[in-house]
Write a structure and sequence with these properties.
Length: about 180
C-alpha cells in the first residue's frame, strides 16, 4: 500500500475540520479542537466510476473517534472492505510543540508525522519506516471544498526524489463501515 494514500486519509480528513465550528461535547485536548467536527463521523473516498469499468476501484473508508479521555483522536480506516487498513493516533506532543500522529498498518510499514493548520488547510509531513516500496517520506495538503467534500494532494520521497503522489476526494458517509479481515 502506498504511504501517500495513508497520509491522504489521515490529513485529508483533518482539512475538513478546519472549516467547521467546534461543537460542545466531551473534553478534548485544546490542541486537538480543530479535529472535533470530525469525531464520530465516517468519511468515504468518492470516485466516479463507469458501469463498464473492468476493475473495482480502491475505496477508502475512515472513522474518526475521540480517544484516551480526549487526549487523542483515533482514526480507523480500511480499503476495499479490509484488503488493507490501518489505525492512526493523533496527539499533542508537548516536547515538540506540535500535533503528531503515528499510523500503524496491516502492511509491512508504519509512519510518524506532524500536522499543522494554516490558512484553512492541513499540511502534513511523515516519515515512513518498514517496507513501503522504497518510499521514505510523504507530504500532503488538504483543503475543504464548499460542497462538503475535501480534496487531498500528496507527494512522496523515493530514491531521493520528490514526486507527485495521489489525489483524492472524500465526503461524509454515515452508512460506510471500516472493515478488518
Amino acid at each position: 500500500m502506498n504511504p501517500s494514500r495513508i497520509l491522504v486519509v489521515v490529513a485529508g480528513t483533518v482539512g475538513m475540520a478546519l472549516n467547521l465550528a467546534a461543537a460542545d461535547g466531551p473534553a478534548l485536548d485544546s490542541h486537538l479542537e480543530p479535529l472535533r467536527p470530525m469525531l464520530e463521523k465516517t468519511w468515504k473516498e468518492f470516485k466516479e466510476t463507469k458501469p463498464d469499468q473492468a476493475t473495482k476501484p480502491m475505496i477508502d473508508v475512515a472513522r474518526w473517534e475521540r480517544a484516551l479521555n480526549g487526549k487523542a483522536v483515533r482514526i480507523l480506516h480500511s480499503i476495499n472492505d479490509g484488503v488493507y487498513g490501518g489505525e492512526t493516533i493523533i496527539m499533542w506532543d508537548a516536547a515538540k510543540q506540535a500535533v503528531t500522529y503515528q499510523y500503524f498498518t496491516t502492511a509491512d510499514f508504519m509512519t510518524k508525522g506532524t500536522m499543522t493548520f494554516k490558512d484553512g488547510k492541513i499540511l502534513c509531513h511523515e516519515v515512513v519506516t518498514g517496507n513501503a516500496g522504497g518510499i521514505t517520506e510523504v507530504r500532503a495538503e488538504f483543503e475543504m471544498r464548499k460542497d462538503g467534500t475535501y480534496r487531498i494532494k500528496a507527494e512522496h520521497l523515493k530514491d531521493g526524489t520528490w514526486s507527485t503522489g495521489r489525489e483524492a476526494t472524500y465526503r461524509e458517509d454515515a452508512t460506510a463501515k471500516v472493515i478488518f479481515k
